[in-house]
Amino acid sequence: MRKVPKSKYPFVWQKDDFYIKIFCSIPNIAVGILLKTDKSYFIIDPGDGILRDLNKEIGTDKLLQVSDLFISHGHHDHVGGLWSFLTYQNVMRRTKPLNIYYPKGGVEIESLHKAFNNVYGKELSYKINLIRIDKAKTFQRKGVKIKPFFVNHREPAPDNNSSVLIPSIGFKFEYDGKTICYGGDTAYCDSLVQMAEGSDLAIIEAGATSEDDADLHMTFDQAIEIGETAGEYFLVHVPD
Ligand SMILES: [Zn+2]
Q: What is the mean pLDDT of the chain?
């Protein structure tokens, strides 16, 4: 296995008005990403700490301007900050609707949303639109083109001898002629290979702890192979 030098979070990338900051992407702990243009604030994978990181980065007013959340899958390290983010918006009396995109079958996100509604529904100052993605169909928000794509993310089965496919997607974002491909968590798969190729930035997980783990996550070699087809790339979700 090739060794990749580790760099410290956050990872930042910017081309003109298209900006992304990966606060962190630590397997089993937390992921949190801000995507920003001159017209919008998006969040990708609101893991634990996202509210703290955003508060420091953009402050209260801009936090209320976040219009869309893109969730790759329901594992706790990718959604652990959702509850506090949603609650904060209510405490600050947000009025604008908030869109949450997630893969079809993402029961963790639906359960969180349901529980949140049970607690705060009657006094909620804003509307939450839960948008289930069941097709790899491009849509547009605030001038950003978003193309979701299905990836191959698995988790160990309870018997520990096999693995189970879980609903998981990546997203390709395009703004002002620049593209960012975020694969989420996935083993090596054709959809990610295709979407990452030619992107200005590819964000690729390299979460496999060994070659034996390659049905769950990508090895360094696999992640680098994909990353090198993009203009630039970050390796994320690298185990300690
Ligand atoms: Zn995962």
A: 95
